[in-house]
User: Fold this.
Amino acid sequence: MEPLKVAICGGGRTGHLNAILFKQLHNVQVSMLTSNPEVIDQHTRHTPMQALLPDGSTLSARLDRVTTDARVAVEDADIVIITVPAHARQQMLQAIAPHLSADKPVYIGAIPGFCGFDWLAEAALAERPNLVIWGMKDVPHTAFDLKPGLSIKMGGSKSQLYVATHARESDASRQQLHTLLTVLYGPCVTLLDNYLEITLTPGNPIMHSSVIYGLIGPYGQWHRKIFPQRMCWWTECPELGAYFLERMDQESQDLCAVISQRLGVDLSSVKSLKQEIVEAYGEQIRDQSSMLSILRTNQAYNDILAPMVPADNNRPGYVIERESRAFNEDVAYGLVLLVEMARRFELKVPYIEEVLNWSVAYMQGLRDSALDYFPSHWPRTA
Ligand SMILES: NC(=O)c1ccc[n+]([C@@H]2O[C@H](COP(=O)([O-])OP(=O)(O)OC[C@H]3O[C@@H](n4cnc5c(N)ncnc54)[C@H](OP(=O)(O)O)[C@@H]3O)[C@@H](O)[C@H]2O)c1
Assistant:
């Protein structure tokens, strides 16, 4: 039987972990497209890649191809998985699109699929009917402590994986995608009815931006101050950040309700962030009484550092990093999209807008954003 050919585009944490897991399966070929010369170098030396699992065990793999050449990585792929952050996806799609097969279905998806990957891929792959666009709601496992080409640590796993396709895909393509992803991830894969269920699920865009705003925004206790040491995102989350997060979570639910009602789509699978976190981490959260306590007492969130860099001009201490993914990805591709969707339904989301406007000023303006691909006609043809 022909092997299943998987191309992983992006040699970061998520890319490494998924590639190693797939190589544990029978008859699966894995290629990795990376710009990191260390990953290439280790592959050339035949060094095995290792995944260090939470129970202390190790999985080892040698990928079939590791390359900087987009053509070599994807030309015969059956399934392509983009694992670069949202702000790098457009460039990745441009690099691989000319080399994807035109002679068979190719299932091209993003993990995670948030920030409207379906709209981006639709724009980039418009005249390519054999390409089936999909996204996964979240990463299947957290991945951290990457040693490029050598090892990656696996954190918590999701018990259920939710996947959606672009609205253009047929039932037969959706079923075939489900079959392929079940081969790769096991029976925990569920197909969602509508890609909006991914796009509207609250997550990092509201979580990261609200906490930063609560720390250093105009009312934050660290406004225009330098942190003496690096802070943890969640265990040291400020009350003001949790307050804004709760408000933004509510506005995000309001948006979901309006879209569901006006477009007549069932978005009942989209839960509030609070509910998502409590359901995902359960007993690991010592105090589930409020957003603040959920964030501060979730053991799974312990010791995760906020994105900070040393202060400039040799001043001792740290500041929040303007170039962090919390801005480039979560604000420019997450919050921007929420606010624009709300605007098109004439829904007011003042808390999200307040945090967005401040964040954009802090990052000294948007260079690029989800508006570069969000269809100007939406929701008219949705
Ligand atoms: N790691 C996790 O546990 C986790 C948890 C939740 C969500 N996520 C999401 O998963 C996605 C991938 O995250 P990750 O943790 O795997 O990231 P990562 O370790 O930083 O890897 C991302 C890879 O994307 C490529 N890339 C291209 N342009 C980039 C750019 N401008 N900035 C950063 N990377 C760029 C790089 O690949 P090359 O080195 O091959 O060039 C990089 O190694 C992100 O959307 C992230 O928000 C990850």
Summary: Residues 10-14, 34-36, 83-88, 112, 139, 142-144, 146, 204, 329 surround NAP (CB under 6 Å). The CA atoms of residues 288 and 294 lie 5 Å apart. The radius of gyration is 21 Å.
